[in-house]
Design goal:
Blueprint lengths: L2 E4 L13 E4 L6 E4 L8 E5 L2 E3 L6 E3 L5 E5 L2 E6 L8 E7 L5 E11 L5 E8 L6 E8 L3 E10 L2 E10 L9 E7 L3 E7 L6 E7 L8 E8 L4 E10 L1
Parallel strand pairs: 1-2
Antiparallel strand pairs: 2-3, 3-4, 4-5, 6-9, 7-8, 8-19, 9-18, 10-15, 10-19, 11-12, 11-18, 12-13, 13-14, 15-16, 16-17
């Protein structure tokens, strides 16, 4: 077993089972080479949790938003949109039902109406969305929201007031489609999830895509995705 350290971009090639690599510039504490698993790969660890780095996504309504992919994470950035909703979306095809997608990201959402960041369901044919996000609407909130499009919110479906969640901790979220219902969960530790809302999977839309977004209404918003696990 080899134990080495260096930049995330310099992860060793040709590792052996059990090797440990400690990146000096990453969101992860350590990488462990699971050579006994199939396929063999580097497991990403943070505070004892096994995390899965972001997969590939495509844009919807990119506008002036940008992505920085570095250090094992994907940072989505947008500047204030002058009192206009603009969901900058990163999306991919949804798995076959039943499925869950568990997401972990660091949000940087300022305390001014209205700034949001979080995962989503999307219907590709209509562009309709359901977002599960951290945000600010008179106070810090976690909520589920419906959208007719990335620029047209329609209704708040569920909300929890949470004035402690704007300090950019790592927050975990879970979207679930069990073949009957869409379910929305969040967690502060990535282990114990609270269900915030549930609805029929064909209510208003049938989601064939999943993804994540930020909405920089009045204030700059950033969010860094470091965990995306589909199961």
């Amino acid at each position: 077993m080899a134990i080495t350290t260096g930049l995330y971009a310099n992860i060793p090639g040709g590792p052996s089972s059990g090797d440990l690599y400690f990146p000096t510039d990453s969101f992860y504490n350590a990488l462990y080479y699971n050579g006994n698993n199939s396929p063999a790969s580097w497991d990403h660890l943070l505070h004892g949790k096994l995390l899965t780095p972001p997969p590939s996504f495509t844009w919807v309504n990119q506008g002036g938003a940008s992505i920085v992919t570095a250090n094992g994470g994907e940072t989505l950035i947008d500047t204030a949109q002058a009192s206009a909703h603009q969901c900058r979306i990163r999306k991919r095809a949804a798995p076959s039902t039943p499925y869950t997608v568990t997401v972990g990201y660091f949000p940087t959402v300022k305390g001014m109406n209205y700034s949001f960041a979080g995962p989503l369901f999307r219907e590709s044919s209509s562009g309709k969305l359901r977002t599960l996000h951290l945000g600010f609407n008179s106070s810090a909130i976690v909520e589920v929201y419906s959208w007719a499009s990335p620029t047209s919110p329609t209704s708040q479906l569920a909300v929890i007031l949470s004035a402690t969640l704007l300090s950019s901790p790592l927050i975990f979220w879970r979207l679930e489609d069990d073949g009957t219902n869409r379910k929305y969960h969040f967690s502060g530790d990535g282990i114990n999830f609270v269900q915030l809302y549930s609805e029929g999977r064909t209510v208003d839309m049938t989601a064939d895509e999943i993804g994540w977004m930020i909405d920089a209404y009045n204030q700059d918003v950033k969010a860094t995705l470091i965990h995306w696990k589909e199961a």
